[in-house]
Amino acid sequence: MQRKSSWILVCAFLCLSLLTGTAQTAGKTTAGKPVDAEGHQWWQHAVFYEIYPRSFADSNDDGVGDLKGITSKLDYLKDLGVDAIWISPCFPSPQVDFGYDVSDYENIDPMYGTLADFDTLSSEAKKRGIHIILDFVVNHSSDQHKWFLDSKSSRTAEHRDWYIWRDGKGPSQPPNNWTAIFGGSAWKFDPATNQYYYHYFYAEQPDLNWRNPAVKDAMFDVTRWWYKRGVSGFRLDAVDTLFEDPNLHDNPIRPGTNVFGDPVEESKYDTKLPEVHEALRGLRKVTDENNGVLIGETWTADIAELNKYYGEGNNELQMPMDFLFTTVNKLSPADFRKQIAAVDSASGWPTFVISNHDMARSYDRYGDGQHNDQIAKLMAGLYLTLRGTPIMYYGEEIGMKTTPPTRKEDVKDPIGRTGWPKEKGRDGERTPMQWDESENGGFSKAAPWLPVPATAKTHNVADESKDPESVLAFYKKVLKLRHTNKALLDGSYVPLNENDQNVLSYLRTYKDQVVLVALNMSGAEQKVNFELGKNGFSSAKSLVATGKSSSKGDVVTVEPYGVFIGQLLK
Ligand code: GLC
To answer: I want to staple 549 with a disulfide (CB 3.0 to 4.6 A). Which of 21, 309, 477, 562 is the partner?
Structure first.
């Protein structure tokens, strides 16, 4: 079916972008050398890639990935088009929450290697122009961290007030009704000192007391320590939960129970307290002194809230992660349009994420079970061509699927055991990277800590590198384009045909360069008349397109679940 384009005259967009400037900059307080005339910083032009180190590449064949493994794959990452890697926690840890329980912030877990291995990774990455971002677990430490061991040793210990200790309400009664996000009460009784300590996550992850200035200073110092070692920034874990109500008001309770059998609670007093912004401003100050970047795990789909994380004059997080996309789990042009418009209107530079180590992979969330490869390309065509910085998740580029355990006894993620069968945990999205079709997907010669999915035979780096039609080949093409095309890097986002229920289309305009992106979210071929002639253009020259997607005159034909990215010619 051929439909008419509903776009406003392109001339109007072009004039507007010339008048208003083509893109938002990082804000007044941004440190560092801009990379272009718009004042953009390196991270605004970069493509980020999250590595879950346990599962990326195993250099010593013990079944668990490591830093040397990551170093050995830097050429792959460079070739793919990655400019920065965010490594999920690789610090010493009892691994209760697979590294998100840190027992020493200034070292590397022996399972992953040594500080010397980190330095090698860092210098090799630098040689290739790849930045390293570490995952900073700011809300809590491990219960094995020396600060906590001292804190629990006595009520008068030096570090007692570094964590949150309170008396119970009465015998065997915790201080209030707050529950931990991973199940059960958020308070654990410690008989030695006859008080409870607070943990938003597992009991082995006691919350640090950010109201104590010594804690803040110590944590700021941790970032300084790593900046000196060459890192370019941090992904701040669970920032929402840094502060809680000092008066410990009970949270309101809603009807029903959650997957852990706990009452459903409204997180009124234990998350998103305004004090977090002061802490973030402090961290940002240290970051600016070191030309770094802060990414935040900001669980919000609300733009007003997102704006608060950018801070006034952009003095908090440069990249609060936008989780809006991860809430649209269907191919709905209308929903995506709404989210993109909202993010595009935010007060800072957008950050786009479609998958990570805490949620089912995008391959399955959007896939229909039959056209998943096409749909994986479609999603790449979307989040890699928007105005903003994308953060990829390892394996997304080869179409890795979520493979949850099928038996409770195989579950590694503790929440999958406590919540089984409703909550199967996060093992499914953390399976080993699929490098080739050999045993264990080329990840390790030993049995991997999580089984390699059967799809390693069909979806792996080696095979897909040879196939020009693979998901990997498509990612590479789009990433190559986005690194060199000024309109994709810096151009404004202009939505088109806002009532189209099948094709999501938009322009990226930079000065007189205009790129048209048309994404067919339906299972039928679509022909869209973009009225190019009327808008002063002769045609759309294909830059990257899937299969039969093409353009002729005013009309762009997009195959089922297809992508068309074209340069508009005068
Ligand atoms: C974040 C991490 C998640 C972890 C939790 C506790 O949400 O992404 O993996 O379990 O924080 O640190």
So the answer is: 562
